[in-house]
Amino acid sequence: MQERIxxxxxKPLRDGARYVLYWAQMNRRVDAxxxxxxxxxxxxxxxxxxxxxxxxxxxxxxxxxxLHTFILEGVPETARRLAxxxxxxxxxxxxxxxxxxxxxxxxxxxxxxxxxxDYPTFLARRHNATVPAxxxxxxxxxxxxxxxxxxLFEKREYAAYTIRPKIHRVWAKYLVDAPPVKVxxxxxxxxxxFHVALREDxxxxxxxxxxxxxxxxxxxxxxxxxxxxxxxxxxxxxxNLRRYARERNEPSAHxxxxxxxxxxxxxxxxxxxxxxxxxxxxxxxxxxEEFLEELIVRRELxxxxxxxxxxxxxxxxxxxxxxxxxxxxARDRREPEYSLEHFERAKTHDALWxxxxxxxxxxxxxxxxxxxxWGKKIIEWSADCESAVRTMVYLHDRYAxxxxxxxxxxxxxxxxGLHDRPWQERPIFGMVRYMSSDGMKRKxxxxxxxxxxxxxxxxxxxxxxLAEG
Length: 469
Ligand SMILES: Cc1cc2nc3c(=O)[nH]c(=O)nc-3n(C[C@H](O)[C@H](O)[C@H](O)COP(=O)(O)OP(=O)(O)OC[C@H]3O[C@@H](n4cnc5c(N)ncnc54)[C@H](O)[C@@H]3O)c2cc1C
Description:
- Helix content is 46%, strand content 7%.
- The chain is globular, with a radius of gyration of 22 Å.
- It folds into 3 domains: 1-144, HUPs (Rossmann fold, 3-Layer(aba) Sandwich); 146-177 and 224-308, Serine Threonine Protein Phosphatase 5, Tetratricopeptide repeat (Alpha Horseshoe); 310-458, DNA Cyclobutane Dipyrimidine Photolyase, subunit A, domain 3 (Orthogonal Bundle), CATH 1.10.579.
- It has helices at residues 34-46, 65-72, 75-85, 103-108, 122-134, 160-174, 203-208, 226-247, 260-264, 270-283, 289-308, 320-328, 340-344, 351-363, 368-380, 385-399, 406-414, 437-443, 446-459, and strands spanning 5-7, 19-23, 50-57, 88-94, 111-117, 138-142.
- Helix 5 (122-134) links the parallel strand 5 (111-117) and strand 6.
- Strands 1-6-5-2-3-4 form a 6-stranded mixed beta sheet, with helices on both faces.
- By secondary structure, the chain is α/β, with parallel strands linked by helices.
- It is built from 19 helices and 6 strands.
- Helix 11 crosses helix 17 (406-414), helix 15 (368-380) runs antiparallel to helix 16 (385-399) and helix 16 (385-399) packs antiparallel against helix 17 (406-414).
- Residues 248, 256-260, 263-264, 294-295, 298-299, 302, 368, 371-372, 375, 396, 400, 402-403, 405, 407-408, 411-412, 415 line the site of flavin-adenine dinucleotide.
């Protein structure tokens, strides 16, 4: 546990406190949550109960129906699981900008200390850099996002091949079940006054009355929440793990896990997914290595990158060779050249690219293989690299359920050479890897994908949506 913890301030524990506060920012789950376990550990030492606080504000960048719905779909099950464990729960949706915005501080006023999630991007990164100084009590951030704690890798890694052996060397130690949550003192008090008890059938109404962007509708393909995450994992293991290595780059095969949004909001942990995949593979004599490579090595390389730099979306973080080669080609003619609006509305000349963008608009994700193509073409058809990155970040932050993640910024910059190597020189890209429409047609079933996306667009329904309940 110790290597997962980062002290965020030097404040003391409060004497006479009523509870230990866990502030769930990114790991919105009860199971296999090392930050919650740490809060329980401290509370047990102090013979105090634990209070789990989860907020949802209306004013984070691009707050919209899609992101709100996915998060809210997790709330009722979180409440049920916490009640069973004897942990207090406070869920506070800040509906309007005029609503109170200091709930964390009010709750912290009764706490011995605050434990939260260590997370290197978006709001949590900002909060963890600013909030602890304003608290009167100790604040710790705990990494429960990665299998191998981020703190173990102090330096920025150059590429997958540099972090892979380091991860493999220690993963046996960390690929073990998180211990069960056992509280010494159960939460006995009523819920805090600003707590909102939410039922599944009230989510639509709550979203409607929030002061957020209602033009981005919920995903037509994915339901949020712990139960949906567990269903998606079970489906992946039974139907897809055996064909993952062979078919993961064929979008119309639907052979990947579809877990990235659940991982992003922490509704399931990569540790749970990795252990389940390994166990299933052992029982069924399958090989899970390719999947674990993506889930652990690639994903944790992204966390390593994001926490090592000041601004994860800045092209100044690209390796020297990539910056030089892109600068050399900065004045190369872009033909065609599209604006953000063209991209956002899927109005390019390229049917495959438009289909990828429509997948993002409708499903809230793009298949991993075509996502690379999507990114490469934005570079090719934007005025310059800076605006290409701005476009990709904006489209992800606004529409992608798994956006705003270390994976988001790392992979956007991967399209410009991060964690990659030089290739043959060509216009615009210089020595940065290029991807062509012909290559996509040769290697993948583009026509099947185009038909699938046309069906989504026409019907507004996704035949690949997992059944609920
Ligand atoms: C331009 C671009 C933008 C991307 N933006 C995001 C993003 O916003 N959020 C996001 O989670 N991923 C992003 N990716 C990486 C990858 O496309 C997705 O993780 C993957 O498609 C998610 O689908 P899945 O859960 O079915 O993946 P699976 O193939 O089932 O993989 C399981 C998990 O491994 C991790 N993973 C898979 N591929 C990668 C990768 N290349 N790098 C790091 N981790 C990986 C993810 O957590 C994923 O959920 C992006 C890739 C590109 C090229």
